[in-house]
Amino acid sequence: MFPRIVIHGGAGTILKTEITTEKEVAYKLALKEALQKGFAILSAKGSAIDAVTAAIVSLEDCPLFNAGKGSVFNAEGRHEMDASIMSGDNLSAGAITGVMNVKNPIVLAKTVMQQSEHVFLMGEGAEIFARKHELKFELDDYFYDEFRYQQWLKIKGTDTITLDHSKEKKFGTVGAVALDAFGNLAAGTSTGGMTNKRYGRVGDSPIIGAGTYANNATCAISCTGHGELFIRNVVAYDISCLMEYKGLSLHEACRIVVHEKLVKMGGEGGLIAIDAQGNIALPFNSDGMYRGWMRSTDDFLTEIYS
């Protein structure tokens, strides 16, 4: 079995006509660094779960992406983060939503999966659990980004919410899927959600089956897009079901869900996928998707646009 890892940094990118060369280079370097960190674990015969976690931590630590350090501001001017992770070998999973000040939400989701009898923790309870397990917290200043703050100021005090960059339709979420040397699949997703979100809004990212899913019998999926539509279509699990029950290939299942089912309902975004044979799919119906894959140290790809 040849290990491989796939990542995304959100769909619906900054318009190609508006991105600078320097910014494009920065995004691609960040994607490459995340791939390298995840693949290093796979190369050392590490698990798909650990590789996915490492890649997502790298993206969470980069302010370019709407997760962890780069999370957008909610209606109260805080950073409310969600994450989930799933192991394909035994269908174990962990998820958290509405957490604040946790440095790496994906690590908390993984800890829920491995150190508790639960799957999904929220808000203050999830933070208490994180402190119990001595996970790292940061002050509000750590999550502050001037660009994201200006985004929020434009709509502060209104009922408007934006999907990260509303004008450019940038759905800011990060995720990774991996296949390890033992044939095990894993998937993870992390996000700061929508700018100016209120009422404890939760998107698809922390919901197992909607934004994240992994099953050794079929595939591993991490989604990015308009979360409400991804939840209603149970996108990640739907792809697995099309493969398991209809015998479709990974690419055909992804095509039907992303380019037919979602489009019919007005759902915009994309996903990354890998199956048990190591086939990779990166479909999206938006202008672009920050994405990349690595199959060896010198066999990798990072892309933004179609």
Verbal overview:
The longest helix has 23 residues, at 21-43. It is built from nine helices and twelve strands. The protein has one domain: 4-Layer Sandwich (Glutamine Phosphoribosylpyrophosphate, subunit 1, domain 1), CATH 3.60.20. The chain is globular. Helix 2 packs antiparallel against helix 3 (105-115) and helix 8 (235-246) packs across helix 9 (250-264). It has helices at 21-43, 48-60, 105-115, 123-132, 140-143, 146-155, 227-232, 235-246, 250-264, and strands spanning 4-11, 81-87, 93-99, 120-122, 173-179, 185-191, 212-214, 219-225, 269-275, 280-281, 288-296, 299-305. The protein is an alpha+beta fold. Strands 4-3-2-6-5-1-11-12 form an eight-stranded mixed sheet.
Short description:
This protein is α+β, with helices and mostly antiparallel strands and 306 residues long. The chain has nine helices and twelve strands.
Query: Structural class per helix/strand content?
Result: alpha+beta
Anisotropy-based shape: globular
Biggest sheet, in brief? 8 strands, mixed
CATH class: Alpha Beta
Number of helices: 9
CATH superfamily: (Glycosyl)asparaginase
Q: Which H/E pattern describes the elements? A: EHHEEHEHHHEEEEHHHEEEE
User: How many separate domains make up the residues?
Assistant: 1
Proportion of helical residues:
25-40%
How far is the N terminus from the C terminus? Answer: 29 Å
Based on CA atoms alone, the radius of gyration comes out at 17 Å
Q: What order do the strands of the largest sheet run in, or round the barrel if closed?
A: 4-3-2-6-5-1-11-12
CATH fold-level assignment: Glutamine Phosphoribosylpyrophosphate, subunit 1, domain 1
Mean pLDDT: 94
Unreliable stretches: 164-169
Strand content: 15-25%
The CATH architecture can be given as 4-Layer Sandwich
Number of strands: 12
